[in-house]
Write a structure and sequence with these properties.
The complex is a heterodimer of chains A (about 190) and B (about 110). Chain A has about 190 residues and is α/β, with parallel strands linked by helices. Chain A is about 30% helix and about 30% strand. Chain B has one domain: Orthogonal Bundle (Arc Repressor Mutant, subunit A), CATH 1.10.10. Chain B has four helices and three strands; from the N terminus they run βαβααβα. The longest helix of chain B has 13 residues. Classes of the chains: A alpha/beta (about 190), B mainly alpha (about 110).
């Protein structure tokens, strides 16, 4: 309300994507205060393979919690983290979420790498800058970053890094890598 | 009677009853990180009053939903009504690229966490 006096507040949005149970909630919780954000998802018959998303408003919706965290950089500069809905049948929610996003973190688990393909495809198609964070679970033989890059068929400029989403320092490194990548994307696009 | 009305039972009123069944706000929708500021008093109903109280200084749509403990979609519809009545102003930088300076500030801020 007093926008002539100080700089306008800035809010930035970062998405956390990846397959179900890969560590999205843990990552958001490691680096920010998780808040219980409710959203709606469409109830559909699980027995049917493909959801027809036409006429979604006519279907029954159910309220679900969505991962949401906030990192206050300083007064008037806040980074918001949103976990993308776990299942790909909620694509229509991704569009609203990803519009204007600074970038995305795709969390990958080498035991089931294919789970993160849809997220990668999505951000590639939308031109959203993203990094791939390979979550190293206990006792899992580690793969080299190069192997993961090849397996995911990633473009060279896409950063891939190992992480442990439970550790704050590791979560921080992931976020910093993403913002640096977004900054590079921003400056090369100009 | 009260045993039916705890947290696990869910809300007594279905969320979209608050919006009279509407699932989209009138006019342009609000991004989750659009910032809402209260402009004047005079909200109708407890939800609008709560939004005006919470938006004394700019607050994001997502934070409002958390504050009110309501689904984002419901809050977006209520905000649409409030915008129509000139109760709030909404600013969104979504769609405009953040400056290099801001991003560098974010990187330094993250390092300092």
């Amino acid at each position: 309300m007093d926008s002539g006096l100080s700089e306008d507040p800035v809010a930035l949005k970062i998405l956390i994507a990846g397959g179900f149970g890969v560590g999205k909630t843990t990552l958001v919780g490691s680096i920010s205060e998780i808040k219980p954000l409710k959203t709606e998802e469409v109830l559909s018959d699980r027995g049917i393979g493909v959801d027809d998303l036409d006429g979604v408003e006519g279907k029954t919706t159910t309220t679900v919690a969505m991962d949401f965290g906030r990192i206050t950089i300083r007064d008037g500069l806040v980074v918001y983290l949103f976990g993308t809905p776990g299942q790909e049948r909620f694509w229509f929610m991704w569009d609203e979420l990803s519009y204007g996003a600074l970038g995305a973190v795709v969390i990958a688990d080498t035991r089931r790498l294919t789970d993160c393909f849809p997220s990668i495809d999505y951000f590639e198609q939308r031109g959203t800058p993203f990094v791939v964070a390979v979550n190293c679970f206990d006792g899992v033989p580690s793969h080299s970053i190069e192997d993961v890059k090849i397996a995911l068929d990633l473009e060279d400029h896409v950063p891939v890094l190992m992480c442990d989403v439970r550790r704050r320092a590791s979560a921080k490194e992931v976020m910093i890598t993403l913002v640096e990548h977004s900054l590079r994307t921003l400056t090369t696009a100009l | 009677m009260n045993v039916w009305m705890d947290d696990e039972a869910g809300p007594v009123v279905r969320p979209y009853a608050l919006t009279r069944g509407r699932t989209r706000p009138s006019g342009e929708t609000f991004d989750l990180i659009a910032l809402v500021s209260a402009v004047r008093e005079g909200g109708s109903g407890p939800e609008q009053e709560a939004i005006l109280r919470a938006a004394q200084s700019p607050i994001s749509v997502a934070d409002l939903a958390v504050e009110l403990d309501l689904p984002v979609g419901v809050v977006q519809v209520i905000l649409g009504d409030m915008r129509d009545h000139g109760l709030i102003s909404v600013t969104s930088q979504v769609g405009s690229r953040p400056s290099e300076r801001i991003l560098k500030e974010v990187i330094n801020g993250l390092r300092a966490l």
